């Protein structure tokens, strides 16, 4: 397995951790009855639960592009030191992003996000050249 696919798998496992963080904090906020219900009535999450939800959703969005980059690089046999470093930069930035978002660290949260985004775009461009 390429480095890029290994990192993609680790990023998917990180998403599982984020789902768990969100689920626990959200259930703590809305209660067990609401969490087990069909949730026909929308409740807006606030505080740490809301931040974990937004960080989780942001990773779903980023994971799509990173997944495409990792798969294209891997199946086209274009893995290089640059794409491997970008893959690691993506994962590390996503790991740091969650606590930065949870703690409301501005502008650091946005800068951390940008590292992962630039790494992903670099991989996509590397796949084309």
TrEMBL record:
GO cellular component: membrane
Keyword Transmembrane: yes
Entries under InterPro entries matching the protein: MAPEG-like_dom_sf, Membr-assoc_MAPEG
Gene3D superfamilies according to UniProt: Membrane associated eicosanoid/glutathione metabolism-like domain
Keywords: Membrane, Transmembrane, Transmembrane helix
Origin superkingdom: Bacteria
Predominant location: membrane
A family per Pfam: MAPEG
Transmembrane segments: 111-128
Location of the protein in the cell: Membrane
Protein name per Swiss-Prot or TrEMBL: Inner membrane protein
Organism of derivation: Roseicyclus elongatus DSM 19469
């Amino acid at each position: 397995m390429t480095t890029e696919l290994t990192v993609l798998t680790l990023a998917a496992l990180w998403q599982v951790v984020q789902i768990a963080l969100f689920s626990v904090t959200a259930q703590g906020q809305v209660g067990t009855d609401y969490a087990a219900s069909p949730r026909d009535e929308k409740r807006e999450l606030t505080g740490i639960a809301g931040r974990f939800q937004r960080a989780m959703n942001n990773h779903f969005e980023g994971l799509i592009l990173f997944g495409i980059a990792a798969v294209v690089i891997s199946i086209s046999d274009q893995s290089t030191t640059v794409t491997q470093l970008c893959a690691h930069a993506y994962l590390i930035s996503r790991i740091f992003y969650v606590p930065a978002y949870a703690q409301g660290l501005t502008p650091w949260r946005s800068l951390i996000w940008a590292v992962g985004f630039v790494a992903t775009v670099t991989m996509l461009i590397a796949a084309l050249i």
